Amino acid sequence: MAEGGVVSPGANEDYPARLTVFVFFACLVAATGGLIFGYDIGISGGVTSMDSFLSKFFPTVYQKEKEEYSSNQYCKFDSQLLTTFTSSLYLAALVASFFASTVTRVLGRKWSMFGGGITFLTGSALNAFADDVAMLIAGRILLGIGVGFANQSVPVYLSEMAPAKHRGTLNIGFQLMITLGILAANLINYATSKMNGAIGWRVSLGLAAVPAAIITVGSFFLPDTPNSLIERGYDAKARFMLNRVRGTEAINEEFADIKAASEEAKLVRHPWRNIFERRYRPQLIMSVFIPLFQQLTGINVIMFYSPVLFKTIGFEDDASLMSALITGLVNVFATFVSIFTVDRVGRRSLFLEGGIQMLLCQVAVGTLIGIKFGTSGEGLLSRGYAALVVVFICIYVAGFAWSWGPLGWLVPSEIFPLEIRSAGQSINVSVNMLFTFIIAQAFLALLCRLKFILFYVFGGWVLLMTVFIALFLPETKGVPIEEMLLVWKAHWFWSRFLTN
């Protein structure tokens, strides 16, 4: 059954199921929760590169950028207050994810999404009409609460609704929506940068209300998952829903397994305490290290600060926004590679290939920037040289988009047993948000101090995390979510934690 730490597809018999139109559209609507996360990732970098925004809220940064004789390209945007504008959202999301765990468990996954949408909607309005930095950051905190609730509930919802053999494809819909949100934000930033006066950045920030409205309205009409209904004591509704989402009458075996998992879950009164028990050690380790490594790839350096980054390495204003737009397009199209392959080639293969690809690109980008700017940061990139940098960044983004991007959300959402699933997903989200916050807050300062070496640092992390996956992640492709325990029992390392 197990070979090299991987359970073969035949090791577990799938429950009878087909991909129904009902399930497809329910997962599509739920996945739109990723739009709010993606829109924010994309919009913040573009807004912070707009002169009207910088001059109003961060005049010191604006003056430094405009100094004719400021030759150090690495340090133009180094401002802790400016990075606080970006990173405050993720600190708020970290805290919110713990509260979202309780809401998701007690009220259901859909209401956690609904609450996230409403809060994000309020934050977008506050940001659009902001008059000072305090109001701006208050809006960002509300956006962060919305992101925390959505990111906690959406991946779990998708994994529970999807048939096992289609779980990867449907769950990656969340990452696809994140990439579409980033692309939409890049397009909007490019358009609003052409507007005169202070209206451009207000339009960019205010249009966050659109994805917020989509998930708010959509989640209101979503059905609950069978797992959530059983967990909350609605067995009859759960049986009806399971029959509908699987498209078959032969649901007795799956229903019995979910029911048994629910009964076991009811015996766990303190999921936050129990999750640290030895028998849950494999899942706990993965829920910490996968989101940690996902952020240490350096992807959010590109997505948060792509216009600022391209501007910093010598691009003009329009060129920097256009380059960010190009990376956004690559991000979307590459995600489709993962959608069409994740349930065929498996999670491990995509993780490993993507890691190697990202490592090579980080080394290439660091080397190209280092050759041109050295440690002094002096100089500008020629058009051809800058295009070469963009090419390697795009190859890097593509590698992330079909590996660590979607799989960083998929794998943690599918590996936890029901009794600790909400707590496990909260750990996943909180670790992700914590390191997103740290990197967002530290990047511009690190770029100023480490210069091109920073890209080698991220490359080192990519190498480490690729080795981690090769050694410790079993294949979860095609395994029913309630039978995931078999995967860990068959693994060469994790099996020792599951023996009596």
Major sheet details = 2 strands, antiparallel
* Separation of the first and last Cα atoms: 21 Å
Number of helices: 23
The overall number of domains is: 1
Average pLDDT metric: 82
The spatial strand order of the largest sheet comes to 1-2
H/E series: EEHHHHHHHHHHHHHHHHHHHHHHH
Described by the principal axes of the CA atoms, the overall outline is globular
Keywords: Membrane, Sugar transport, Symport, Transmembrane, Transmembrane helix, Transport
Main location: membrane
Subcellular location: Membrane
Transmembrane segments: 19-39, 81-99, 111-130, 136-158, 170-191, 203-222, 284-308, 320-342, 354-373, 385-405, 426-447, 453-473
List keywords for this structure.
500 residues; mainly alpha; Growth Hormone, Chain: A; 1% strand
Give a verbal description of the structure.
It is a single chain. The chain is mainly α and 500 residues long. It has a single domain, classed as Up-down Bundle (Growth Hormone, Chain: A). The chain is 74% helix and 1% strand. It is built from 23 helices and two strands. It has helices at residues 21-31, 33-47, 51-57, 59-66, 80-106, 109-128, 133-161, 167-192, 199-206, 209-220, 226-231, 235-246, 252-266, 271-274, 281-296, 299-312, 317-341, 347-373, 383-401, 404-415, 421-450, 453-472, 485-489, and strands spanning 2-3, 6-7. Strands 1-2 form a two-stranded antiparallel sheet. A hairpin with a 2-residue loop joins strand 1 (2-3) and strand 2 (6-7). It is globular. The two termini are 21 Å apart. The model is unreliable at 1-12 (pLDDT under 50). Residues 26-477 form the Major facilitator superfamily (MFS) profile domain. GO terms for molecular function: monosaccharide transmembrane transporter activity; symporter activity. The chain crosses the membrane at residues 19-39, 81-99, 111-130, 136-158, 170-191, 203-222, 284-308, 320-342, 354-373, 385-405, 426-447, 453-473. Belongs to the major facilitator superfamily. Sugar transporter (TC 2.A.1.1) family. Keywords: Membrane, Sugar transport, Symport, Transmembrane, Transmembrane helix, Transport.
